[in-house]
Amino acid sequence: MGENVQGTFVSEKISKIRWQHRDFTEAKNFLTGSWDNPVNKITYWTFRTNYDEEPSPVVLSSYSFLGDVTELKFISKDFFVASSSLGSVRLLQVDEDTCAEFKEHMAWEFIHSFKTTDYASCTALSTFEQDIASVGEDGKLNLLTSIEKKPVRIIENADSCSIYCINFLKHNEVLTGNSRGHMKVWDLRNDRDIPASTFMLSDQVKTAATSITHHPTQRHIVVAGGDDGSLTVWDLRQNTYPMSQLNAHAKAVSEILFHQDRPDNLFTCSVSGELWHWNNAQSSKLKLDSADTHWLNTISANGKVNVTSLCASMHKPINSIDIDRSMLLFGCDNEAMDGSTSNNATTAASTATKSQVQFNPYTMLPYTPRYYELYKKRITLPVFEYRTDFVRLLSQHQCIVLVGETGSGKTTQIPQWCVEYSRSIGNKGVACTSPRRVAAMSVAQRVSEEMDVALGQEVGYSIRFEDCSSPRTVLKYMTDGMLLREGMSDPMLDAYQVILLDEAHERTLATDLLMGVLKEVIKQRPDLKLVIMSATLDAGKFQQYFDNAPLMNVPGRTHPVEIFYTPEPERDYLEAAIRTVIQIQMCEEIAGDLLLFLTGQEEIEEACKRIKREMDNLGPEVGELKCIPLYSTLPPNLQQRIFEPAPPTKPNGAIGRKVVVSTNIAETSLTIDGVVFVIDPGFAKQKVYNPRIRVESLLVSPISKASAQQRAGRAGRTRPGKCFRLYTEKAYKNEMQDNTYPEILRSNLGSVVLQLKKLGIDDLVHFDFMDPPAPETLMRALELLNYLAALDDDGNLTDLGAVMAEFPLDPQLAKMLIASCNHNCSNEILSITAMLSVIYKSKVSLYKFD
């Protein structure tokens, strides 16, 4: 793993290195302290990123420090304490925003001293909020606070020898370790200067304790390092014997560090120049919050802990380590010149190095090359420059409306930032909904690659009939209907910290229901964040609905798109679409792929067959045209074909292209790179309810102007494009609606009422729909459900109704299926239900069903 380590050379040996932790994003600033110089320094650094290279540290400011820097500890965002080998402790401030000089707020001079000399080295510090505890070579334990100049308490004879390490276990309890291996627990509530308990680091030899740390969530689990390179683990509830002891390093352990978010990962460094990563996840079968969990128990010590070296041996001491989420820093005594002969201390290495290893915070493994490859693409997305603004809005507001054009990166990047926010304040997950299954699956696959995790683990998806997630999942993409179903069993959606509704402009039935439900949930859960994402600019309605929520606009990468209309209406749009595809392939001299919008699987498969047949008839001299279908029921592996490259240009100059023949899923849900030509017949399938026969069906109907604009925009993502609209300009201006009619206004409300009742919402008349259906329509639905025995005479959900709500069907079909079990005709009813669920009206075949 050494190839993932980058070193930056400075002019001093590094004794301590500490991240300046931030609230909602990964740390970028840190402190270093030096030693072994007449005048040492505390230096404030930041990582500056040149996106063609790895991040590199840059000095912001420095502070001259008398004596060796023996410890650095932040007590708040900008305030930290530093201890000196001359026996002093200083409270300093560094301002991230101004990067000005360090400010000294308080100094406890010579707080450690021998009787024969003016000072003794302050060997270690520990902090707990505003409280500070220091120990030193004089065997003294000092208790300080950042708001008082005078020490709160001094235990003069805490030990008869040097104390090398200290750690706050609780607000009123510290653990110290001395040069003879004595470990002492001090109850600070006790006025007597005696330890509450004492035990030995090793019962065989006098091994000095050089470092102590405790488990982040189980503070009674303590790990100590010795000057012989050993690691010892205790459960302080039963501290007579250690849980385990191992020979970890060849020489003294310098520091020990648990990962704060993933405490089954431990990091140790040593004077021998080793840096180890201990992963106990495989051997810890119990939950981390269990009172019986042993981090490194005897079974673990017998070889079941995964131990990894994080860098090649430095051959010089590694003195200090610190980790923040995915970035591990370590400071060394390395004296390598790195091939430089310059005498300038700011550019050449004379005696020291400081290095950083980037870890994936979800897997605790170094990032793969694929991560860096995708990261370089991510930072070029239009949405990326709005990251800071988005995180600020998310932290300040409960609901945000975000408008971002397709291709801006909102669907892949915004949820990842929400995960970072969620992890910074707790351990709940993030849900991102989409109206379509294919979008949920494909985006989850892409984001899992960008986060460098396995699909189904930290990133997953949930669609009807398939749940690709696990208890480790922190980001779940799902259809809006699946989140509604989760709400039936968890009305407050307590599993989630942030919920994102993507493609909200499509106004599907489930999306409208979700918005109404979530508007009530966020009133009862102030900690829940809601992000409404839309690809159209008509966001005012969403803002008004969510109580004037703040709006964030993210532009897309658009190029000019030339639009062509037909002079006369087309009698057969499928025939016209196929003819247009062939003409583009034959006549256009510009390279680029095609995107053809059709209404459903049957049309798409027919079009692909006819396009292939037409191209075969044109002979081998014509450029190859690869035809790729895309619709929601297509298997995932075949859906991924849309990202395949186009066929190569032939030696005679004939251009090879691919044509993606898709439903309206490619309007906003997916971005297909390389598309230059769009063919838009102007139709899509819409679900409509026929009140005469009380059956929902799919009707092929004209699209809206907003949909037409979205389709045209697919052609201008990477370069100027062309859109061929197979309808007249007059029809576009005069006949098309501005926006798609909300599905809730053209649907059978029986299933809507049933779902709302299942969600515990009884007052349907006053339920806050964005576009309320007519009251008489709701009453008709209530009457139907009462007739089907799903509701009783008082309008309450019956046991039968609760079962019916679990079926993703019209109430009549659900009741029919349930009743079929009592009449031994389930197979026949299943077939009839399946047929009734797919009947549609088609303008192509002019098939009539009424």
UniProtKB/TrEMBL annotation:
Keywords: ATP-binding, Helicase, Hydrolase, mRNA processing, mRNA splicing, Nucleotide-binding, Repeat, WD repeat. It comes from the Eukaryota. GO terms for biological process: mRNA processing; RNA splicing. GO terms for cellular component: spliceosomal complex. InterPro entries: DEAD/DEAH_box_helicase_dom (IPR011545), DHX15_DEXHc (IPR044756), HA2_WH (IPR048333), Helicase-assoc_dom (IPR007502), Helicase_ATP-bd (IPR014001), Helicase_C-like (IPR001650), P-loop_NTPase (IPR027417), WD40/YVTN_repeat-like_dom_sf (IPR015943). SUPFAM superfamilies: P-loop containing nucleoside triphosphate hydrolases (SSF52540), WD40 repeat-like (SSF50978). Residues 582-760 form the Helicase C-terminal domain. It catalyses: ATP + H2O = ADP + phosphate + H(+). One of its GO terms (molecular function) is RNA binding. Residues 391-555 form the Helicase ATP-binding domain. It is an enzyme of class 3 (hydrolase). It holds the Pfam family DEAD. Its EC number is 3.6.4.13. PANTHER family: ATP-DEPENDENT RNA HELICASE, ATP-DEPENDENT RNA HELICASE DHX15 HOMOLOG. Belongs to the DEAD box helicase family. DEAH subfamily. DDX15/PRP43 sub-subfamily. This is RNA helicase. It comes from Lasius niger.
